[in-house]
Design a protein that fits this description.
The complex is a heterodimer of chains A (262) and B (313). Chain A is mostly helical and 262 residues long. In chain A, 76% of the residues lie in helices and 0% in strands. Chain A has nine helices and no strands. Chain A is globular. Chain B is 34% helix and 30% strand. In chain B, the strands form three sheets. A six-stranded mixed beta sheet of chain B has the order 6-7-8-3-9-10, with helices on both faces. A four-stranded antiparallel beta sheet of chain B has the order 2-1-4-5. Chain B has a four-stranded antiparallel beta sheet with strand order 12-13-11-14, covered by helices on one side. The chains are: A mainly alpha (262), B alpha/beta (313). Chains A and B meet through helix 1 and helix 4 of A and helix 2 and helix 3 of B.
């Protein structure tokens, strides 16, 4: 649709989209507790883990190797992916249910803006808070892994880029899952409870059984994790699983946003 | 601008299970007027507003906003509609200005430039950078009006907008609504406060049990009935005597005195009838300290038309 065909008072979709995303980002970044929790779950673990590694190495170099290097980078980024996904859930749930909880969803609907557009703006708006925080955490890990590598191999640019892409994938998936679920449900507390229980307890348990691996995210994400060893899933299966876990929650959340009484 | 009416519904119904909230409603709100949608609590006022704004779906019937059929052209219609539905809600951790920015982002580009003017118009410019959690209910109501103004609305839909306002705030609010109407905008004001509607609105629809029982200008609603207010120390005897007077159709005791309604077609004007009745009462030996023609009030008409008549009586 061109702007020439728009009704009076109807903005061009691209401009509109940018402003809605900026508004979503504003709503999230002004929540101090959420921002603090995000930093605590993404940046703080990396700082603490490298300080601990450095102290251990300084106190007993014979027993503990250098804090940096490729191995410690892999370990610390796996830690970041596990703890940081809690931040992704918190941001996703807040982005998905914040307007509804505050009663502002109704006020947005009466602007006449399509509900799909309101929902869609939450995705980049939330990622705009999450991914920079993850990037800072990653930067801490990457810098420390190079600077404190000692005589061992330091990670190269290619490996770091692979880790960046993998982390972005893990975090974005955690976020869209939370966004979809919280848009589907009416309660943020329930959404957080369900998602964290799934993420931290149910999914790992199911993975232990080994029977549901092809449909759970864990193995599919491992397919893309740098240095994760021989993959158990084919590339195609992994892409299909990740696609399913991305599309299903977003579709459910969009449908509920579209159909719910405001 | 298209269509004679800012709001038009025909056969509009909304059911919640067995309960009918809006029942085959036909409503016409003329453009450029302050229109009161008046009804007792539970009459279906908020449900109608929610239907018009697309917050819930109609069970059946037709509605048009600013000439646009709803829901088919809802986006085009709502781009020029500002609304407050029930108590205005905000992100309490954001400032007033930020809350307006959030809504402006969902509207046309120019909406952002209207934020300052809207804040100034409702008297919140100096508190705009404080968090909404620090605002009183009255301030949140005013911020709600400011938010509605971001649309540069041709039509403002306000649901019980004076809730929480102090007397000075209500007075300012009336002036603001009249100012908006003077600019050519239409204001649809839903309320159960008769006095409020009577002071603000040009036209009214009275609704009860989800149905419009009457609509028209205030003068039309009050009718051409002539009434006279009489003050006397012996109200009971006044009522008894007046029952036999040829000019009197009914005499009712009210807090202000005995309000009598003249028979339709009575040949004298209200002033002459008042003099005649005064003479009649004095000759009967009654002390009368007040006799004056009094226009019929919207309250009387409202009570007559709605099911609350029995309650009030």
């Amino acid at each position: 649709m061109s702007t020439a065909t728009l009704a009076p008072g109807q903005p061009a979709p691209q401009q509109q989209g940018r402003r809605l995303v900026a508004a979503e980002f504003l709503k999230l970044r002004r929540r101090r507790a959420l921002v603090m929790a995000t930093l605590l779950l993404t940046v703080a673990p990396m700082i603490v883990s490298y300080i601990v590694l450095a102290v251990l190495h300084a106190s007993n170099p014979g027993k503990y190797g250098p804090a940096g290097g490729v191995d410690n980078l892999g370990g610390s980024l796996r830690l970041l992916s596990q703890i940081g996904v809690v931040a992704a859930v918190l941001i996703g749930v807040t982005a998905g249910g914040g307007d509804l909880t505050a009663g502002v969803f109704r006020e947005l609907v009466v602007t006449g803006r399509p509900r799909f557009a309101l929902f869609a703006a939450r995705i980049p708006g939330g990622l705009a808070l999450l991914l920079p925080a993850v990037a800072v955490g990653f930067s801490v890990a990457a810098t420390a892994s190079v600077a404190l590598a000692g005589p061992g191999p330091a990670p190269g640019g290619g490996l770091l880029l692979e880790y960046v892409a993998w982390l972005a994938l893990v975090m974005s998936l955690g976020f869209v899952l939370a966004l979809g679920v919280s848009s589907l449900l009416d309660s943020r507390a329930t959404s957080i409870g369900i998602l964290l229980t799934w993420q931290l307890a149910v999914a790992p348990l199911l993975l232990q059984t080994g029977k549901l691996d092809p449909i759970l995210l864990g193995d599919a994400l491992k397919r893309f994790e740098p240095g994760a060893g021989s993959p158990s899933l084919s590339l195609t299966t992994a892409i299909v699983v990740i696609g399913g876990w991305t599309i299903a929650p977003l579709a459910a959340g969009a449908w509920r946003t579209h159909t719910r009484d405001a | 601008m298209s269509g004679t009416y800012a709001v038009e519904t025909s056969g509009l119904s909304k059911r919640f299970g067995a309960r009918v909230a809006v029942d085959n409603l036909d409503l016409r709100v003329p453009r450029g007027s302050a229109f009161g949608y008046l009804g007792p609590n539970g009459a279906g006022k908020t449900t109608l507003i929610r239907l018009l704004l697309g917050l819930t779906r109609a069970t059946s019937g037709m509605m048009r906003l600013l000439g646009h059929p709803i829901p088919a052209e809802r986006a085009a219609a709502l781009s020029r509609v500002g609304a407050i539905v029930e108590e205005p809600r905000f992100h309490r951790y954001l400032t007033g200005r930020e809350n307006l920015a959030v809504i402006a982002a969902a509207r046309e580009r120019e909406a952002h430039a209207r934020i300052e003017g809207a804040l100034a118009r409702v008297g919140l410019a100096e508190r705009a950078d404080e968090r909404v959690s620090t605002y009183s209910l009255g301030m949140r109501q005013r911020l709600g009006v400011a938010r509605a103004l971001l649309a540069d609305p041709e039509l403002l839909i306000l649901d019980e907008p004076t809730n929480g306002l102090d007397p000075a705030g209500i007075h300012e609010f009336r002036g603001m609504i009249r100012g908006l109407v003077a600019e050519g905008r239409t204001v649809l004001l839903s309320s159960h406060l008769l006095d409020e509607v009577e002071k603000i609105c040009d036209a009214v629809a009275i609704v009860d049990h989800g149905r419009v029982v009457m609509q028209g200008s205030l003068a039309e609603l009050k009718g051409d009935r002539q009434t006279i207010l009489i003050g006397s120390g012996d109200g009971v005897r006044v009522q008894a005597l007046l029952a036999a007077h040829p000019a009197v159709r009914s005499a009712a005791k009210t807090p202000e005195g005995i309000r009598i309604t003249l028979r339709p077609g009575y040949p004298l004007s209200a002033e002459d009838a008042a003099a005649d009745i005064n003479r009649f009462l004095v000759e009967a030996g009654l002390a009368v300290h007040r006799v004056e023609p009094a226009p019929a009030s919207l309250e009387e008409r409202f009570l007559e038309l709605t099911s609350r008549l029995g309650v009030a009586a």
